[in-house]
Amino acid sequence: MSEEIDLRKLTREYLKSYYSINSYIGCTINCGYCFLAPIKIVPMRPIKVIEEEELIKEMLNDIYFEKDKTVLSLNNRTDPFISKEVKESTFKLLDIMEKIGLKNIVTITSKGVLTEEDAKRLDNYKNIRITIIVTYNGIPLNIQPISQVNQETTMKNVSKCQNVNLLHQFRPIIPGVNDDEVTIRRIVGYAKQYCNAAVYQGIRVNEYIKERLEERNYTYDGNIGDSHKQKSENTDLIFKQLSEENLNYHIFDHTSCALSTLYGMSDYNLHYTKKDCSQLCENYKLCHSNNYEIPNDLADILNKIGVDSDYELKDRLLMIYGMLSDEQKSYIKHILNITVKAKVRKNTYSESIMEGRK
Predict the structure, then answer these.
(1) pLDDT of residue 338
(2) Are residues 163 and 132 in contact, defined by beta-carbon separation less than 8 angstroms?
(3) Is residue 17 over pLDDT 90?
(4) Architecture label for domain 7-253
């Protein structure tokens, strides 16, 4: 692990789809495509970087955190159920949030095992709104060295919960590995028996990850260094066909769209403002009839989160004539419900590492 990496800075980051909090850093699964790999914490035995009580306290005091509004992700700088100690830490974070009465949406993404007892424990939380996101993708062991039996077991157990949403994450989709129609239909066909909805996403590759994939005997020929996850038009067509065949099982290509639909709100990441959404989407009318009012104290709010550049608001687009951090952008979109652009972008700490800017 590079001495330049400050693990403490990875304990809290406001990412594109959620606010990430992490008591543990590191993962031993060692998937070839892992986005943590460029941060040099894969493969690494998870290290406890901060006590759970301190982490929650820091989150509550963060200018970007809004009680009952901010969507959270727990221990996604590891796998939250990778080991007994990490699993207990994940549950402890949930316990603390439940005790103080938070009603935020909390996502927990895993390839690991949740037992029947774990599922019952999850189902006992009444305040926080939990979604378990199971990564189940049909990728072979040479690239993703963990048995899919783990994810199948988790889906079976969590599907019995009454107070927990279960989301199938078909990610990443890798060309020539798991992007054929037979594989996609097999994976979705199994997951839809247990999950409330599905989200599918492509793969993001930089030079570091490309080398890791080549070590696993896979050559990636797609775009390198793109900040967006890459997938083909044919992949979109396959999932579109599956959506049309399974009208009661909703399939999304954005996590925030899936979460928003599960919780009956318009997409908090505002994808509907820049894409041609399918009218088959359960949330289409809700998103496109969005009538949120611009807050009267917008200037004060922007000042609170450190936006000190000149700006202009026109037709629900906030143009910042200076620098805007990724965290500020997420807050403006998720909490204020305003689309935003800026002249200069400042990456999150982890993003700057992935893009080679550290």
Answers:
(1) 95
(2) no
(3) yes
(4) Alpha-Beta Barrel (3.20)
Under DSSP, the state recorded for 227 is S
pTM, full prediction = 0.95
Measured between alpha carbons, how far is 65 from 106 in angstroms, rounded to an integer? 13
How confident is the model over 37-61, as a mean pLDDT? 93
Structure confidence at residue 356 as a pLDDT band (50, 70, 90):
low
Instruction: Say how many C-beta atoms besides its own lie within 10 A of residue 244's C-beta.
Output: 11
Separation of alpha carbons 351 and 343, rounded Å: 18
CA distance 205 to 282: 32
Are 166 and 134 in contact, with CB atoms under 8 Å apart?
Answer: yes
Q: Which two tokens stand for residue 272?
A: 């509907």
The values of phi and psi at residue 85, to 5°, are -70, -40
Identify the CA nearest to 78 among candidates 11, 124, 13, 1. 11
By the 8 A CB rule, do 113 and 81 touch?
yes
Q: Where are the domains of the chain?
A: 7-253, 298-354
The β-bridge relationship of strands 47-48 and 24-25 is: antiparallel
Going by pLDDT thresholds of 50, 70 and 90, the confidence category of residue 36 is confident
Q: Are strands 72-74 and 129-135 parallel, antiparallel or unpaired?
A: unpaired
Distance from the Cα of residue 17 to its chain's centroid: 5
Q: How far is CA 329 from CA 62, 118, 303, in A?
A: 15, 35, 13
Query: 357 pLDDT exceeds 80?
Result: no
Q: What percent of the chain has pLDDT over 70?
A: 98
Question: Strand 197-200 and strand 250-252: pairing?
Answer: parallel
What is the overall mean pLDDT for the chain? 94
Residue 228 structure tokens: 């967006």
CATH of 298-354, one of 3.10.20, 1.20.120, 1.10.3470, 3.30.70: 3.30.70
Cβ-based neighbours of 296, under 8 Å, separated by 6 or more: none
pLDDT by residue (tens digit) across 280-321?
Answer: 788 999 998 877 789 999 999 999 999 999 999 998 899 999
Contact status, residue 135 vs residue 166, Cβ threshold 8 Å: no
